[in-house]
Specification:
The complex is a heterodimer.
Chain A (H helix, E strand, L loop, with lengths): L7 H10 L5 H4 L21 H14 L4 E2 L12 H7 L17 H18 L3 E2 L6 H15 L7 E4 L5 H12 L4 E4 L9 H5 L8 E6 L9 H10 L3 E6 L20 E5 L15 E5 L11 E6 L5 E6 L5 H4 L12 H38 L4 E3 L7 E6 L3 H10 L2 E2 L2 E2 L10 E5 L6 H20 L1
Parallel strand pairs in A: 1-13, 3-4, 3-5, 5-6, 6-7
Antiparallel strand pairs in A: 2-8, 7-8, 9-10, 11-12, 12-15, 14-15
Helix pairs in contact in A: 4-11, 5-11, 6-7, 11-13
Chain B lengths: L8 E2 L4 E5 L5 E5 L1 H7 L2 E5 L6 E2 L3 E8 L3 E6 L3 E6 L9 H4 L8 E5 L11 H12 L1
Antiparallel strand pairs in B: 1-2, 2-3, 3-9, 4-6, 5-8, 6-7, 8-9
Classes of the chains: A alpha/beta, B alpha+beta.
Chain lengths: 454, 131
């Protein structure tokens, strides 16, 4: 039974009041060929026991293992206190409350989160979060087109090192509004600033740079930012928040800094959970704040001068601006943000820096270890906590063999970056011990040797 | 009761327009509009030089609880915008017909101004819409 609280009498009364005879008649204006006749492919309803069993089977398919995969979601240590606090009844809701100001504690958490993200990115104003990293990127593109008054273009330039998943999601979301993503060429795992210069007078609303790139490499963000600004583009920085504890924040790229930063918040205390829920973050310069989608919590004083927190800049939002709102997919992830705020508060700036440093050092140790194996070449030298290995044989069977040895060996780049050959993206976070790394090197070496002998 | 000066033309969307001696037209929102919106916190204006189609949304006036588009009833190029509104949007509340003007444009066809409402017609329009 669907959860619709109206009784049949109430439905009849309401239909009668507007002079319609049935609910189907309400939808008469939708042409018949656009309607779906029944939901094929949806399984029949299951009872609680059935659902539990199905989900247990699905969960068991996620075998775990020693994780050396990054590619957008990262296996960082999450202090137990993070979720112990986040799941307290006072916080345990996925949504910002409808009567927002009645929940001062929730608003204060979001305000603290916004302050932390602004500091981490070196930009002025953060929203209360978005759905995930990919949709945050799509929203940043839409925002750039609205905000860039020097450009009439609806095209966004992106580095080829932008996550393939983000590019795919953004293309799908943007095409309906006539926006187009245009890729800059990549050489040696990074974007050559000369490729940007070579575009000359072509009009683009923005340049989007992922830093570190999807391949883990470090882009020449200062040069790219300055060139883009000189060509009247806005600059969108897509950054792993952990990396910002070490790398130059987007707000300081080049002479003027990036205009918008966004990305995936999962590394900040959110378990990988087979792909979600995660959250997207977005931060921008003050001048663009009215074009930023999503909710923003502000600090103010009440009539008696006492500090309090309130939703601000709501006039841009969908409940007021309807179709002209800055976004109509501004789902936020309140619970994930609560966890991320607690995670950042527990670690502090120094703790986050140590996570970033140790992840970088571990990946370097991993790369040094596998570099000595026959049949493994390290593609690029310049990376944060992910690196590309090129194998002398197809990647998929190697990964399968590693999985059988309890090692999640990395992300097969073949489909997304065929130009790299048999390439594998690996990551070793701060969680990987020297013994784990030795295990990986030995397992990969054995696998390659066996495959060669066969 | 709201004010609606004699020398202006009015639209059903509560904009006013004034033909200047140099042939440009100044555009703002009416006293009625600013009262309905409440205290403005932000005014978004177009770039000078932008070519407007008749009926095109050319500005946004935003109060704490609402944001409304402002439409130009005339085709024409924007020749000037009221820069003072960037820091003091409340000028639109305090002085909707003078210091709170929004933009000036050079109309493609000045005669189209004559199709708009005069103050009496606008007063009737307001009275009818309150019924």
């Amino acid at each position: 039974m669907p959860f619709i609280p109206h009784t049949e009498d109430e439905v009849r009364d309401m239909l009668g009041a507007i002079g319609v005879s049935s609910i189907d008649e309400l939808f008469d204006e939708i042409p018949a060929e656009l309607r779906i006749d029944g939901l094929n492919g949806v399984l029949p309803a299951l009872n609680e026991a059935g659902i539990k069993r199905l989900m247990a089977t699905r969960a068991a398919a996620d075998t775990g293992g020693l994780c050396f995969i990054g590619a957008g979601a990262y296996d960082h240590h999450i202090p137990a206190a993070v979720w112990a606090v986040a799941t307290r009844g006072e916080f345990y809701s996925a949504y910002t409350p409808y009567q927002a100001e009645a929940s001062q504690g929730t608003l204060q958490v979001i305000y603290e989160y916004q302050s932390m993200m602004a500091e981490l990115t070196g930009l002025d104003a953060s929203n209360a979060s978005l759905y995930d990293g990919a949709t945050a990127f799509a929203e940043a593109c839409l925002m750039a087109v609205r905000a860039n008054r020097k450009s009439k273009s609806r095209r966004i330039l992106t580095t080829r090192g932008m996550s393939p998943a983000y590019r795919a999601v953004a293309s799908a979301l943007l095409q309906g509004q006539g926006l187009e993503l245009v890729e800059l060429p990549m050489a040696d795992g990074v974007t050559d600033p000369q490729a940007l210069e070579a575009l000359g007078e072509q009009d683009f609303a923005a340049l989007a740079i992922q830093q570190p790139s999807f391949l883990g490499t470090l882009e020449a963000v200062d040069a790219l930012t300055d060139l883009a600004h000189a060509q009247n583009m806005l600059v969108i920085g897509v950054c792993n928040p952990t990396s910002l504890a070490l790398l130059k924040p987007p707000g300081q790229w080049g002479d003027a800094g990036a205009d918008v930063a966004c990305g995936e918040g999962q590394p900040l205390g959110i378990p990988m959970s087979s792909g979600g829920p995660y959250f997207g973050y977005m931060v921008c310069r003050q001048a663009l704040v009215r074009q930023m989608p999503g909710r923003i919590v502000g600090r103010t004083v009440d009539l008696d001068g006492r500090p309090g927190f309130t939703l601000t800049l709501q006039a841009r939002e969908q409940h007021i601006r309807r179709s002209k709102a800055t976004s109509n997919i501004c789902t936020n992830q309140g619970l994930m943000v609560t966890a991320a705020t607690i995670y950042m508060a527990l670690l502090g700036g120094e703790g986050l820096r140590r996570v970033a440093l140790q992840s970088h050092a571990n990946t370097r140790a991993l790369v040094d270890g596998v570099a000595s194996l026959d049949g493994v070449r390290v593609a690029f030298d310049n990376y944060f906590h992910e690196a590309v290995l090129v194998l002398d044989r197809p990647v998929a069977p190697v990964l399968e063999s590693l999985a059988q040895q309890g090692v999640l060996g990395g992300y097969d780049l073949g489909a997304d970056y065929p130009e790299l050959g048999d390439a594998l993206l690996v990551c070793a976070t701060e969680q990987r011990t020297p013994a784990d790394i030795d295990n990986y090197v030995r397992s990969l070496g054995d696998t390659l040797a066996r495959s060669r002998a066969a | 009761m709201t004010e609606a000066p004699d020398n202006l033309k009015y639209t059903p969307d509560h904009e006013w327009l004034r033909l200047e001696d140099d042939g440009t037209v100044t555009l703002g929102v009416t006293d009625h509009a600013q009262q309905a919106l409440g205290e403005l916190v932000y005014v978004e204006l177009p770039e000078a030089g932008r070519e407007l189609e008749p009926g095109e949304a050319c500005a946004v006036v935003e109060s704490v609880k609402a944001a409304s588009d402002v439409y130009s009833p005339l085709a024409g190029a924007v020749t000037a915008i009221n820069d003072a509104l960037a820091d003091t949007p409340e000028l639109v509340n305090d002085s909707p017909y003078a210091d709170g003007w929004l933009l000036q444009l050079r109309p493609a066809d000045p005669k189209t101004l004559e199709d708009l409402m005069d103050p009496e017609a606008y007063a009737r329009f307001l009275a009818e819409s309150e019924d």
